[in-house]
Each structure stands twice: as C-alpha cells, then as structure tokens.
Amino acid sequence: MEQIPFIKMHGLGNDFVIIDGRSRLPDLSVAALRAIADRHRGVGYDQLIVMEPTANGADIFMRIYNADGSEAEACGNATRCVAHLLMEEAGKNAVTIETRAGLLAGTTEDRQHIVIDMGAPKLGWRDIPLSREEDTAHINLTVGPLADPVGVNMGNPHAVFFVDDADTVDLEKWGPIAEIDPIFPKRANISIASKMDAGNFRLRVWERGVGITLACGSAACATIVAANIRGLAGKDARLHLDGGPLDMRIGDNGHVFMGGPIATSYRGVLDAGLLTGAA
Ligand SMILES: N[C@@H](CCC[C@H](N)C(=O)O)C(=O)O
User: Fold this and answer.
1) Which of 26, 65, 114, 206 has a CA that sits 20 to 30 A from residue 76's CA?
2) What value of ipTM does the predicted structure carry?
3) Does residue 79's CB lie within 6 angstroms of at least one atom of ligand 1?
4) Which atom belonging to ligand 1 lies closest to the Cα atom of 217?
C-alpha cells in the first residue's frame, strides 16, 4: 500500500504537512486529508501542501488544502516554508512558486527569514467575492460585536474587522458564524485587528476551513491593505499574531510583501491506513 513521505513545517505556528509530489502525485481523498489533519489520530496541520510540477515558469506549483479537506487558492506562511525548501534544495536565495493565486516570488538573505511578494490585492465586490454589491471598504455586515469589515482578496477571500481590543473578542464563537455568512459565497477568512500604534497591529485570525490559527500570512496581507484603506496605517506595519510577528509592506507597485521566520519540525511517512481516511 502507498506510504507518503512528508515534512512538517510551520511559520509562526501556522503548521503544514508538506508532500513532494513532483515525481508522483499523491492520491488524497477528502477523508484522507481530514484523517491526516486530525491532531489526535493523524499528524495534524492547518494546511496540507503538495509540491507539484509546473510548466509555467515557476519552480513548482503549490497545491493547498485546508484541514477540512477544502482547497485554498493562497497560503502566505506555507509559501514561505516551501520557498525555504526550494532554496535549500537548489542553493539559491530567490524562487518562484505558482499557486491558484498566481506566481509568487520568494526571496531571502539567510534562508530562515523569507519574504514573499503576495501580489496585488483585489478589492472589487465580485473579486472578494461577495454575494451582493457592496463598498468593500465598509461591508454592511454585523456578527455579534463585529461590524463593518473591509473585504480583501489576496487570492483567497478575507474580511478584516477592526476592533478596540482584538484580545477581548470571542473569536471561537463569532469566527465560524462570520466565515459562512451568506454574503461570502466562497466563505471567508476572518481577521480581528486592533491598532497598537501606527506601525503595529494585533491580529487574530479565524481561518476558513480550519478555525483559529496561530498565524495566517494572507490575513496579515489583507490586514495591512485594510488598515491602509481605512487610514489606520501607512505602507509598513508589524502584525502581531498569536504565534509571533509578521513584517508587512505595501510596495510602490501595490504588491503586498510579507516577511517572517520559518521552521522545520520533523520528517515522517504517512501510514497507509491514514490514506484510506481511517483515522
Ligand atoms: N494559513 C494561510 C491561509 C490558508 C488558506 C485559508 N485557510 C483559506 O481557505 O483561504 C496563510 O498563511 O495565508
């Protein structure tokens, strides 16, 4: 029976099972993806990543699955981890990774702190996407104590709620309700952000298809964009997530750059039983 080698990595505690599918694509059912994600009976992950071959001028194509088995278009922290793997493998300090969100460039000086050009945000209501026409700088949505979010698409859909103190919000309660609000036909990643000072924001994230995560790179991108739109931030900010800080910058070309550390936890082999979904 098939057994699949993997690497477990994380970016600020946003954790990934990474499979090299370049020579052979793994056959992963939704049941198998959920079984591997099980933190008691499987390995546990926020996202499972498959590195796939590509002919589109990038080093690889990166396929992204959430813990619930759904496929995501973008994942900032996993892009940083995969960039590190490719850099070490090829002995270079710049790589290009294709995702469903487009071609993303990764650069580094030391191969531990990786910066990804996450591309330009999309801000039209159809782009987020929303199910009705709205000003995405002020979406008419209230969920418990959360109201008036900014909608940002970083390849994947985000709603950013600004509050006085992000740490007092019951994210476990309100996050899942906001994620599936009918205004988000593809669901949404839900960010709760509060301004500490002009260059620092506290950020907590309820990730689509996962739940509360220790960090979310694309949410950090969405948040610096949203803060800039609302006049709360300039073009640089440090975002303090539960797992640590990410350094964000909006470039002159409008692209969002995200920098932070990566770490490798261990390497292993997925047991054939897990791949049948029998967790
Ligand atoms: N952890 C990621 C985001 C992963 C995808 C997200 N849950 C979605 O469904 O869009 C990041 O670092 O960006």
Assistant:
1) 26
2) 0.99
3) no
4) 12
